[in-house]
Please model this.
Amino acid sequence: MRKENNHRSELVSQLLYGDCFTIISQKKEWIQITTLADEYTGWIDNKQYQTLSPEQAKDITFTSSKFSSQLIDYIETENKFLSTLVLGSNVAAASFFKHQFEGSFISKKGAKKDLIQTASLYLNAPYLWGGKTPLGIDCSGLTQMTYRLHGLVLPRDAAQQAQIGETLSFIDESEAGDLAFFDN
Model:
């Protein structure tokens, strides 16, 4: 997803397989979208999506989410092509597109204590501003994807993430999996 409707514009986020969105507007080969899960807005190339009904999109996003649990996996399309998936792709969309996914997935909320183990799956991933995958990820993408794999939706940006949750008085009150934000 780009900030503006051109390929040179800053990458602000990424859509993974199965991420659903609403179209806001269109300018030539670009579509402005808002994602359903975290309500993040940006621009995508109009060749990079398939259409679903609003009901199907809501079902995939909020009801039947199944997230791929391998760093890299694949899905077989209706035409027998293999398409790469990354950790956190929502493979619940596969049945709507007649795609075959035979890999492992996560479909239930995980324990808070397991967040650290999940975050460690992204160790050695290169830094990529706007990234959300093991192939490139930024700080807020890391927290968003770690919590996503545990069935919890966080906003995309760190400034947005800092506005939710409970404020602690002392660091001693924190637990594994808590997020810390610092104000300069």
Summary: The beta strands are 21-27, 30-35, 41-45, 67-68, 72-76, 82-86, 105-106, 132-133, 136-137. Helices lie at 54-63, 115-119, 139-148, 158-161.
